[in-house]
Amino acid sequence: LFVRKAFLFATLLVSLATTCLARRIPVVAAYRAGQAQGSVLAVRGRAEIRPDVTYQGLDVDLVDENGRVVFIGFIPKLNVQAFPHAEALNGKMVVMYGVIEIYQGLPATQLLVSDQLRPA
């Protein structure tokens, strides 16, 4: 339980730092994000946004020109209210800020505060 709380606290701190330092963070194409695992990065791409029934939140996937998911973003259920503009960004170019992780073989980030998801 302590490890989980410490991880969540560290993730929150990184997320807040991400929004404060957004102007200094390099923006990369979604397909290149996997090369920066563990780094704070801004990732740009076309968003597909839909409810995630399994994990109860919102999926904010970035897709390539063929519609293939190349980057995974996720807004947890408890944070969805912080993103009232999220579904309006469906199909549009966006920039996501966050710590790059690998989830199911794809680069990914968790979105906790609204500044982490912006129109491109």
Q: SSE layout and pairings?
A:
Elements: H1 2-20, E1 27-29, E2 40-52, E3 57-63, E4 69-76, E5 93-99, E6 101-103, E7 106-110, E8 117-119
Parallel strand pairs: 1-2, 4-7
Antiparallel strand pairs: 2-3, 2-5, 3-4, 5-8, 6-7
Our estimate of the beta-strand percent is 35-45%
**What is the average per-residue confidence, as pLDDT, rounded to a whole number?**
88
Instruction: Name the helicity range.
Output: 10-25%
Number of strands: 8
Can you tell me the residue ranges where pLDDT is under 50 for at least 5 consecutive residues? none
* Count of helical stretches: 1
Order of helices and strands: HEEEEEEEE
Largest sheet: 8 strands, mixed
Explain this structure:
This protein has 120 residues and is an alpha+beta fold. It has 1 helix and 8 strands; from the N terminus they run αββββββββ. The chain has one helix at residues 2-20; strands at 27-29, 40-52, 57-63, 69-76, 93-99, 101-103, 106-110, 117-119. Strands 1, 2, 3, 4, 5, 6, 7 and 8 form an 8-stranded mixed β-sheet that branches. The radius of gyration is 13 Å and the shape is globular. The termini are far apart. The model has no long low-confidence stretch (mean pLDDT 88).
